[in-house]
Amino acid sequence: MHKVLSEYLFSDMIIRYLTNEEGNIGFEILPASLKDKAAASKKYNIDPLVQVFIRGDDFSGGFANGHTMRNGQQTFLLRYESQKVEKIENTQVITTILKSEQGYVARHVLTYHNGLKAFELKTVLANKSDKAICLEMLSSFSVGGLTPFIEGEAPESMNIHRIRSCWSNEGRLITESVEDLQLEPSWSGHGVRTEKFGQIGSMPVRKFFPFLAVEDTVTHVVWAAQLACASSWQMEMYRRDDALCISGGLADFDFGHWMKVLEPGTEFETPSAFITVGIGNVDEVSQRLLTIHKYNVNKINKFDRLPVLFNEFCTTWGNPSHDNIKKIVDIIKEKEVDYFVIDSGWFADKENGWDGTHGDWIVSPEVFPHGLQETVRIIREAGMIPGIWFEFENCGYLSKAYKDHKHLLTRNGDVITSGLRKFWDMTDPWVIDYLSDKVISMLKQYGFKYLKVDYNETIGIGCDGYESLGEGLRQKILASQEFFRRIREEIPDIIIENCSSGGHRLEPSMMSLCEMASFSDAHECDEIPVVAANLHRVINPCQSQIWAVLRKKDSKKRVVYSIANTFLGVMCLSGDIYDLDKEQWNTVEEGISFYRAVSDIILNGTTYFFGSKLKSYRNPKGWMGILRKSEDEKEVLALIYTFHGNFPDTVEIPIGDNYEICNTYCAFENNVLLINGSLCINMKEEFEAVAVHLKLSK
């Protein structure tokens, strides 16, 4: 039997702490408007507030060992000690203390910033015993009681949402029922039901985003969680009775070979988790988590309006030079481009080229015979802010740095080689001094105010030097992030782009360090709008930089399609810029003007998804509609894309009454009407895009 220990209202969410006779504490959340309906008759045990496993603990029964480290012995030995609430300006912090007789103290910390639609959780475990312990698992969050709105086992009424990801195909939403994942309890309650997933290595969005949502399809409530962790992480669904439980944090010993020794008097803090609950579907509720993202990035954001960038990579394909940059600048200097980014290749070796020589970071005298300063001067005089590309956390196989094994990461005594890259030890003071000279001093010397940081391989399960391979990985990634902070400390007005073979590091802790990110390496393929729209569930579009690669052969339809893709985020131009004709440039400039007009909607809006259920991304069929409403709902951006196969001649999207069409961007003068609160758009061909800007009638 359990009862309510305490209850708090944050925004439209009820936070509820439960307790039982043994002194264990549980954690449940629900929409405030449905509080009175959360009284379903259910038989379930409290899911402990903190999940912890210390080496030597008994594992849970029910065939759990090897599948999960949840609900081990120490988890239930942590008992309630106290709870306090602190209010600091616009922030409230709830700290719940749990203690065990063995001398372990857990602090469960909830932080809520007024006005947001989500809150942050983390756990701190202190060893106050007289012996060292080996910590093998500690949760950042653990939420139980799902779903409190349906009696019993809630059959056929709960879905699990996860977001898969792979190179150039980021953000695919996968929805499965509890039954399909075999998360129904057994007839007797025996036998643990669990599903663990995550990512191992230094590319945190490889295979999955650190995101999980549970949907009550009857009550239309969604619980969603996101981890802010750039190293190995895991999330779990667990069940043994009427209630489903979810948890997550660092990848544990079983999953990520992580173990941390806590000496007497020391403590360990987990990465943060962002949690929310809301009424609606997963598309709507996932964006509540992004209110924390926006809060964090606003601390470093310098944009009053979204910029237009030009990145020369898809123009020169790794072969920038003074001459071709000057040629590009002469073309785009009157096109309202804000940033000009010199991508990889500026360090090209005359014998080995650029691909594989990164790590030594010497400006190529062959590529820039007048010196890089002269090229930067040309960019500045054209009214653009110069930017440059680095991949400073590793080194390529043709660089001298690649052979400097003393300062590179090892595993089991051997230098880690992933593909054609080795990795700097970012905790090594020599490495930090080296990179400070090669990166920070270089940025200062040439006056670069934009830095694109790439990262094109993964360390894998971990490295030597610590208690476990997983702890080695965690330490190195935290050191990398510290170097990002050092760059910003020394160059406060720098803009940093988070790139990792496109979107492999699009997780909250990295996104809080960077104003924007490369959304994907999908440079000029048909699925760009699908991938870009997917990311609205996990990062804010005002941080999602999207390629518009323009080619000499492009029809007007193709140019509009490419430019309209960038309305799903931040515009980044590239391609055959100096081969475009006047008509093509007119279409591009019209698109830039449209983008400027809807910039605030992209910055501060909410996204709604419409269209066909797409299976293939490489060969999409049907259509997609994206509606983004401004924060005050006075403006709307509607984006419609057609793909292969069947799509309606006229697409209809409900938008609400009292709007009027302000502007359109399309290739064929499409018929666009407002009829009975719906936006009706006549679509003519495959792979066509239409953008519509609407405002409330005065």
What's the quick description here?
The chain is an alpha+beta fold and 698 residues long. The mean pLDDT is 97.
Topology at a glance:
Elements: E1 2-10, E2 13-20, E3 25-31, E4 52-54, H1 73-77, E5 79-88, E6 91-99, E7 104-113, E8 119-127, E9 133-146, E10 158-165, E11 172-177, E12 193-199, E13 207-208, E14 211-216, E15 221-228, E16 233-239, E17 244-250, H2 253-256, E18 260-262, E19 267-269, E20 272-279, H3 282-297, E21 308-311, H4 313-316, H5 322-332, E22 339-342, H6 372-381, E23 385-390, E24 394-396, E25 410-411, E26 414-415, E27 417-418, E28 421-423, H7 429-446, E29 450-453, H8 469-490, E30 495-498, H9 508-511, E31 516-518, H10 528-534, E32 544-550, H11 556-565, E33 570-575, H12 582-603, E34 605-611, E35 623-630, E36 635-642, E37 650-654, E38 659-665, E39 672-675, E40 678-682, E41 689-696
Parallel strand pairs: 21-22, 21-33, 22-23, 23-29, 29-30, 30-31, 31-32, 32-33
Antiparallel strand pairs: 1-2, 2-3, 4-9, 5-6, 6-7, 7-8, 8-19, 8-20, 9-17, 9-18, 10-11, 10-13, 10-14, 12-16, 14-15, 15-20, 16-17, 24-28, 25-26, 27-28, 34-35, 35-36, 36-41, 37-40, 38-41, 39-40
Helix pairs in contact: 5-6, 11-12
